[in-house]
Amino acid sequence: MSGVVVAGGGPAAHRLAALLVRYGYAGEVTVVGAEPRPAYNRALLGSVLDGTLDAGRLSLPALPAAVRQLTGMRVTAVDRLRRTVRTSDGRELPYGVLVLATGARPRVPRVPGLTTAPGRLAEGVRAVRTAADCRPLSEGPVVVLGGGIRGVESARALRRAGHEVALVHPADRLMDRHLDAAGSAVVAEWLAGRGVTLHLGRRAGEYVPGKVVLDDGQVLAAGTVLLCTGTVAEAALARASGLDVRAGVVVDALLRTGDPHIHAIGDCAEHAGAVGTTVLRAWEQAQALARILTGRGQSYEPGRRVLRPRTPGKDMVVLPPAGPGADTGETVSLLDRARGRHARLVLRGGRIHEGAVVGSPSAVAAVSRLYLRDEPVPADLLALLTGADGEYAGDGALPDEAVVCHCNNVTRKAVKDAWHRGAHDSAALARATRATTGCGSCTSAIRELCTALAGAGDDTTVEGATP
Ligand SMILES: Cc1cc2nc3c(=O)[nH]c(=O)nc-3n(C[C@H](O)[C@H](O)[C@H](O)COP(=O)(O)OP(=O)(O)OC[C@H]3O[C@@H](n4cnc5c(N)ncnc54)[C@H](O)[C@@H]3O)c2cc1C
Predict the structure, then answer these.
(1) Are 220 and 226 contacting, i.e. CB atoms less than 8 angstroms apart?
(2) Closest CA to 289 of 244, 257, 322, 320
(3) Measured from the CB, is residue 307 less than 6 Å from ligand 1?
(4) pLDDT digits over 224-267, tens only?
């Protein structure tokens, strides 16, 4: 057996290699990653950029010694007949199974001045995709292009870090792919209330160093232009190898391309018409493939997932539609604009099919849990949407089995147990439970839990300087 070669050194590759070893894969496992350092958690880069997380905390656990890791090296070509790959330093590596985990790259809008050459961003223009992109921002205002989840998170975080921030979004409402008009309005009012200047329904028309000219002629001062304009699957290698590529590298239920010896996972893969863009999806696929390659699993079935934007002070959850179906179901919604709360749920057969909740931490927790477990909603829907539902009223009342870190499936009980074993700050809890080491959206909940546990009688000091 020539073993598994993984092209790509991100979270998907890392999880796959670790699990192959853990599941007793018999062959050699080689990971070839283009970046100079071993895999790290890309989802936390925003927190490094805004200064709330030390870059050292990005690291993922070291891979077992049995994994051969080649960093700073690209896979440049695949010879499918001979089953070998060529690397940028001229090596030829044989494979029994090749896994493409090449991730994604930022989508750069076609705005004159943003690039100086194809793929080369002009001075002052930044897209955050690698650790190297997190160097300190230039002096002067930040203009964020894109008002999806990433744009909203970045604008809020950079404003909180003391930058003057303007956000430009072509749609007339924020997070328009995830929220309805009322939900978007609540988010817009909250963001504007925190000092972010919004330019909705506007596009950047031109960038010249120091300023962005909008399509209506307005000129915005810009020390930095931050691109939050989405990503494109990195599929050049697959395309050059003659594999089927649409929005991503097309894979079947075995996460296999049209070539039975080549698989694809993570942000580069397109499964059932969808390309992943979350670390949770990447890890889920890595686990499924590790199980398939070691004879433990038959196929990949995407699980339910929730999106938890990192918007401290305005808890949100977005529930992507669970499965297909033309019937939209029964919609229930609540808008409390004065208190910045909004919820909209689509129900089918008494269960949550899709929706979003903004501004109510206890409703966010309750709705997330019901959706992820596909449990029936309670009879009192108003109590659920306002967060007044008994079980979840107030953060302190979260039940022990509630999952606080969805990326790593860590329950409140697991965090409490680790705390009682001596993990008294979020860094120690991260090491003990992995909580906060996925997308990082649970960081403030973990910190609050630390504070609550410390206040419940233990005299140990709780570290506060965490993201
Ligand atoms: C700023 C930011 C915030 C994010 N926030 C969240 C969040 O809150 N929640 C969430 O779930 N997700 C978030 N994500 C997305 C998450 O980081 C990705 O879904 C995840 O990193 C995908 O992992 P991956 O391994 O598939 O791809 P990637 O992380 O893109 O890694 C791919 C790696 O492969 C390397 N590579 C590419 N081509 C080759 C080649 N030919 N040879 C060798 N190596 C190659 C690349 O250099 C890269 O190192 C965020 C991403 C960013 C950038």
Answers:
(1) no
(2) 257
(3) no
(4) 999 999 999 999 999 999 999 999 999 999 999 999 999 999 99
127 lines ligand 1 (CB under 6 A): no
**Cα–Cα distance, 461 to 454 (Å, whole number):** 7
Q: How far is the CA of 321 from the centre of ligand 1 (A)?
A: 23
DSSP character string of 62-98: PPPTTEEEE-S--EEEEETTTTEEEETTS-EEE-SEE
Query: Is 115-229 CATH 3.40.50.1970?
Result: no
What separation in Å is there between the alpha carbon of 407 and the centre of ligand 1? 15
DSSP 8-state secondary structure symbol assigned to residue 392: G
Cβ(170)–Cβ(201) under 8 Å?
A: yes
Q: Which of 284, 307, 319 is nearest to 441 (CA)?
A: 307
From the CA of 12, give the closest atom in ligand 1.
25
For the stretch 289-303, pLDDT in tens is 999 999 999 999 999
Note the pLDDT tens digit of each residue in 104-155: 999 999 999 999 998 899 999 999 999 999 988 888 999 999 999 999 999 9
CB atoms within 10 A of CB 278: 17
Using a 6 Å cutoff on CB, does residue 13 contact ligand 1? Answer: yes
| Dihedral pair phi/psi, residue 108, rounded to 5° | -105, 120
Distance 42 CA to ligand 1 centre (A): 6
Q: Report the pLDDT value the prediction gives residue 400, as an integer from 0 to 100.
A: 79
Task: Examine domains 4-105+232-293 and 316-455 and report if their fold is the same.
Answer: no
What is the homologous superfamily of the domain 316-455 according to CATH? BFD-like [2Fe-2S]-binding domain (1.10.10.1100)
227, containing H or E segment = strand 224-227
pLDDT category of residue 411 using cuts at 50, 70 and 90? confident
Helix ranges (DSSP H) in 232-360 = 236-240, 279-293
Give the distance (Å) from ligand 1 centre to CA of residue 11. Answer: 7
| Domain residue spans of the chain | 4-105+232-293, 115-229, 316-455
Q: Is the CB of 45 under 6 A from ligand 1?
A: yes
* Spacing, Cα 60 to ligand 1 middle (Å): 13
Return the CATH superfamily for domain 4-105+232-293: FAD/NAD(P)-binding domain (3.50.50.60)
List the residue whose alpha carbon is closest to atom 20 of ligand 1.
Answer: 279
Give residue-wise pLDDT tens across range 370-381. Answer: 998 899 999 999
37 close to ligand 1 (CB < 6 Angstrom): no
Instruction: Report pLDDT for 402.
Output: 75
Residue 352, pLDDT score: 94
- Angle at alpha carbon of residue 441, lines to 304 and 40, rounded to 5°: 95
Confidence band, pLDDT 50/70/90 cuts, at residue 1: low
